Amino acid sequence: MPIPQHAGTPRFLNDEAFKCLRVGDVDGYHRNAASRDVVDLSGSDLRATDFRRIDLSKLVLKNAYLRDVDFRGCDLRHLDLEGASLHNAKVAGAYFPESITSGEIQLSLIHGTRLRAKKPSHAADHAADHLIEHPSAQ
Q1: 22 vs 15: CA distance, rounded Å
Q2: Closest listed residue to residue 112, CA positions, set 79, 65, 62, 72
Q3: DSSP code string of 72-137
Q4: What is the pLDDT of residues 95-116, one digit of tens each?
Q5: Nearest 5 degrees, angle CA 22-CA 26-CA 29?
Q6: For the chain, which ranges sit under pLDDT 50?
Q7: Going along the chain, which residue ranges are E strands?
């Protein structure tokens, strides 16, 4: 009988792209990803993976375990990193999504906390509700 896995436990996926990343086979990853619209590695264990030569455009890394990964110089702005853990990752020169604060990134790098993304503000929808008429306009 299989041992139940805790919801927060990173998984080893039965996915060729995942396997290629885990062993550092950059060409194998790109061959596998080429025929796919999305490479969903959500919740997977990608510890110590070097992403510097990986095409990140199709990747989904939500809730991924990214301890000791190498994101140096990578553009992560399009990625959903909600719930991912970056403990001890190399991130010099990396661009992160605007929805993740520098404080969240720092907590994750140092303590391994899961990243929390800011929810989009709908302030523009309600901007008129907060307008204050300037006294000279009366």
Answers
A1: 11
A2: 65
A3: TT-B-TTS--TT-B-TT-B-TT-B--TTS-HHHHHHHHHH-PBP-PPPPP-GGGGGGGG----GGG
A4: 999 999 999 999 999 999 999 9
A5: 75
A6: 1-6, 124-138
A7: 39-40, 59-60
